[in-house]
Predict the structure.
Amino acid sequence: MTDAGSVSRRRVIQGLFALLVAAGLAPSSRAEPAPAPGRIVRISRGSFAPEKYADVERRLAASQESLIPAIRKLAGCLHYYAAIDRQSSTLVNVSVWRSLADAQQMQTLAPMLALAEAFTRDGVRFERPVINYESLWQIEA
């Protein structure tokens, strides 16, 4: 991996860690046992050409119009974050679910599938598979 690639990957990891801390699912200075172990953290990551940043940012911001109502209808969604990083030309969707079955609803959510297809047509490359992580502990801020 090149030095630039290492820096980009490190920035993405730092950004994801910051999101997890904000969601109460990663350590900060006050770690406590999780009151409800087994929650699922779902992370979807995509990358794109740097010159596409403005278009991808606009589309990602607009995606809330169709995704928020659709995700709110799903069982078990506790948190949902859509984020973008200019430095690494990546975007992430991080969500927290009560169970694996709840998280897996995203695999067939029609508005999400349609948006993924549109993003892909515009050059976004999504990492597959989307990973569902079992939470071992959390903190409450």
Remarks:
- The mean pLDDT is 86.
